[in-house]
Each structure stands twice: as structure tokens, then as C-alpha cells.
Amino acid sequence: KYKPHLQADKGLVKRLLKGVQTGRPVEVQSALLRRHLLELTQSFMIPLERYVASLMPLQKNISPYKAIPSLRPFNPDHFLATLELYGPHLTSGIRGDWEGLYRRFFRSVNFSVWFNARHQEVSDKLSELHLQALC
């Protein structure tokens, strides 16, 4: 049986139920839910983006006399260790097992797709910076 990692946002549920009771337009209800999901997604992704940025070599280490540097490997345990200081609990009031949610995400196809896209973006940026150093 599936057990959710995060607790339900009771405030959102109350607002949506009140909207149903008062006849709030469906478009407004939908906008409330979309905004909530956007904020939740951003709270989840910001720590990942920050961690990936930390894997990128410093620009001062890019030299025309060296090969193009690459992104350091993604280490889930190192990332999870940063959650206490930089985790989604700082931007989201939702409580729960954020670490378990990230671990589940790391095993998913969605993580692979996201990370491969970010890795390609960073590699392209490093190539661009290396080319600038050559000129």
C-alpha cells in the first residue's frame, strides 16, 4: 500500500472546500490548486538545482591549457546531507519525510530525465566558458 511522504496541506483543503460551499468559480479553484502545486514543486526542486550548481567547477579553474572540465558526479547521500540547511522545509510549510520523497525520486525515470537534461546544460555551459578562455 502506498504511504505518502508528505502530509496533506490542511489549509489548502479547507480553502478548496470553502470554495465549493460558497460557489467559487471552478477557474479560481483551479488557480488555487495550480499555484499550490507550483510552489510545492519549486520547494522540491530548488535544493536539487542548488546542489547541481555546486557540482560545477569554478570558473577560475577553466583554463585554455586544460581539457574542458566536467560536472562532478551527483551523490544522493551528499545531497541528502544538505537538506537540513537548504531543504524544502525552508520554503514550504508542508511537513513530512522529504528525504524519503527525494530517495524515491532518485530511483525514478523522472530523475534520470531531469538530471540528464541538467547535465547537458551544464556541459554546454562549461564548453562555452572553455571556448571563451581560448579566445
Verbal overview:
With 135 residues, the protein is an all-alpha fold. It is 66% helix and 0% strand. It starts with 9 loop residues before the first helix and ends with a helix. The mean pLDDT is 90.
Secondary-structure topology with pairs:
Layout: H1 10-22, H2 26-55, H3 76-86, H4 98-106, H5 109-134
Helix pairs in contact: 1-2
Briefly, what is this?
This protein has 135 residues and is mainly α.
Low-confidence segments, given as residue ranges, are: none
Largest sheet: none
The computed structural class is mainly alpha
SSE string: HHHHH
Q: How many H/I helical runs?
A: 5
Helicity level: 55-70%
The tally of beta strands, per DSSP, is: 0
Distance between the termini: 59 Å
Mean pLDDT rating: 90
Shape: elongated
Tally of domains:
1
- Radius of gyration equals 20 Å
Portion of residues in beta strands equals under 5%
InterPro entries: DENND6 (IPR024224)
GO molecular function: guanyl-nucleotide exchange factor activity
